[in-house]
Every structure is written in C-alpha cells, then in structure tokens.
Fold this protein.
Amino acid sequence: MARAGRKRKTNVIRDESGKSRGEIFDPSAIYQQPHRRDLAEPGRTEAGYPLGRLRLNGQITPAQLRAGNAYAHSVYAYARTMGIPMGSPRSGSMSECVSTGFYAWEGDHVEIDHDEARKRVQRVKEQYTQTHEALWELGRHHNRGNKILVVLREICVAEQDERDLWADSQKLGDLRLGLNAVEKILANRNKGLT
C-alpha cells in the first residue's frame, strides 16, 4: 500500500509507532564546505571564519586571533552604540545582538541606570577611537596609509575570503601589524594603563 505525501526521511530516529524523534546529525555536509575542505580539522570552530582559518593554517598566532576577535567585537559594539546597521537580521552580527540582550522585545521593560549606560557608551567610543587612531598612526609610520585598517576590516569585520592574503604577502603583513597593534592596546587596557 503506497503512502500519500512526501517520502519519509531516512536519517531520523523513530519510535515503535514510526513517529520521528529527531534527525541524526551528519557533519559531513559541514566538512564539505569549500573553506573547510583542505583543513586538517574541518570541524573546529575556527574553520568557520577567515581569521580562524588563518590561525589554523599557521598564518597568525593565537594572540593575534584573540586580538582580531576583540577588534571585531569593538567595531560591532561601536556600531550598535551609534545605531549603525551591521549586517542583515539573519547575519551573525544581528543574532549576536539578540542573544546578548541588546534589543528589548515588545512588552519587555528594561530598567537602565542612565549614568551607567552613559559610562558604557563612553567606554565603547573611547576604545573604538583609541584603536583606530593607533592603527592610523601605525599605517603612517610604515608608509602604508590606511591599508592596515582596511585589511583588518576586510578580514575581521566583513569576513572576506582570506585566500587573497596567501598570494599577497604585503597584505598579510599589514594584517599581522594591525593585529599586533590591537593586541598591545588590549594588553595596556587590561593593565589599566590607558
């Protein structure tokens, strides 16, 4: 007897009555993504974004990876503070805002201490400004103009494909210089020197 409707999925767990109890997770589709295929460990979290893949390929150090992630976080925090849209509602940046409680949903009432909110906004602005001034100065010092800042934005924030850096050693060098500068800024901030 033929059943009406679509065919049953084969990769699901079923109880005795035949009712589906969930799909079996198959990571092979994830591992076959073009940016993960050539990696020794395609399942690592770092394989999901350009800066992480640069770390997995040995192009940057763990400290530079942390600095790049912190830089991206700083840019996104500044954008949220200033009301600058970053990505679509389905992009990672917007889902981060939702998961961290940045947006209050309709009906939610959030009590905010206005002085504390003002201090937080000021800290975000100062951190963003300090980082970008240091990157501009670094570019001037190395006669690279804004190229260091541009490559940091491309890789850390816009998450453009990092394979362009493999062929352009100057661009990879600019990225490393920028990440080192951000790392120093973070270290000084954590020591309370800035």
